[in-house]
Specification:
This protein is an alpha/beta fold. The protein is built from 6 helices and 7 strands; from the N terminus they run H-E-H-E-H-E-E-H-E-H-H-E-E. The protein has one domain: 3-Layer(aba) Sandwich (Rossmann fold), CATH 3.40.50.150. A 7-stranded mixed sheet has the order 3-2-1-4-5-7-6, sandwiched between helices. The longest helix has 21 residues.
C-alpha cells in the first residue's frame, strides 16, 4: 500500500502508515490482509492486463508481485523520490519491472500508455482525488484498479484498538474519507464500474475506461 501523496500542490514527502501489513505476524492482520490480497488478485485476473502502472506504489510489494505474475509484460511502479523507497525497490527488481520517481501534478506518460492503472490505498492520501483519478484514466487504455479504506468503519476499528485517539481514529495522512457508496460514485465519473469487492474493511473497484 502506498505511502505517498500525488496530485496538485502535494508535498513531496512520503506519508501514511509505516506498519508492514504484508509482513505482519499478527493473526488478525494476516487474516484481513489475506482477504484484501485475494480480492485484489481476483480483480487483476478479471482485467487480465497487458501492462500495469502502479501509482503510489510505496515499497513496491504489490508491484513486484504483479511483475512476477505478468511475466514479460511491462509493469511500472511510481512514487516519490525517497531513499527508503529506493532501498525497498532495490530488493524487488524484475526484468519487466521499472520503478520511477515523480512529484508533479500530471502523470509523466502519454495517453493510453498502460492497459491498467492502479492506485491501491493511495486516493485517501491525495489532496485532489478527482484530478488524480482523471490523470489515471488518461494514461489507462482499458482499466483502473483502485482501493480505499471503508469509512467510518476504518476509524472505528482504529479507535477500538486505541489507535490515533486524538484524531478520532483517523490514520496519519488520510485526507479523504469514503463510504462504499460514496467511493463508487467518485469513480463512476471516470468510467464504467465493472467489478466491486469489499474485503473488510476496504472498498476495491475495477473500472473500465474504454
Amino acid at each position: 500500500m502506498s505511502t505517498s501523496e500525488l496530485g496538485p500542490s502535494a508535498p513531496a514527502v512520503p506519508t501514511g502508515n509505516t506498519y508492514d501489513k504484508y509482513g505482519s505476524a499478527n493473526p488478525v492482520v494476516r487474516r484481513l490482509m489475506g482477504g484484501f490480497e485475494r480480492a485484489l488478485d481476483q480483480l487483476l485476473g478479471v482485467a487480465a492486463p497487458d501492462s500495469v502502472l502502479d501509482v503510489g506504489c510505496g515499497e513496491g510489494v504489490l508491484t513486484a508481485r504483479w511483475a512476477t505474475r505478468l511475466g514479460p509484460r511491462r509493469v511500472v511502479g511510481l512514487d516519490l523520490d525517497d531513499p527508503k523507497l529506493h532501498a525497498e525497490w532495490d530488493k524487488r527488481r524484475r526484468e519487466n519491472l521499472e520503478f520511477r520517481t515523480f512529484d508533479g501534478q500530471d502523470l509523466p506518460f502519454a495517453d493510453d500508455a498502460f492497459d491498467l492503472v492502479a492506485a491501491i490505498e493511495v486516493l485517501e492520501h491525495v489532496p485532489d482525488p478527482r484530478h488524480t483519478i482523471g490523470e489515471m484514466r488518461r494514461v489507462a487504455g482499458r482499466h483502473l484498479l483502485v482501493s480505499v479504506p471503508r469509512e467510518p468503519v476504518w476509524r472505528m476499528l482504529n479507535l477500538a484498538r486505541g489507535a490515533y485517539m486524538r484524531d478520532l481514529g483517523n490514520s496519519p495522512g488520510h485526507v479523504n474519507h469514503w463510504s462504499r457508496r460514496a467511493f463508487l460514485e467518485q469513480v463512476a465519473d471516470h468510467g464504467e464500474v465493472r467489478e466491486v469487492r469489499s474485503p473488510f474493511p476496504w472498498t476495491m473497484v475495477l473500472v473500465a475506461v474504454r
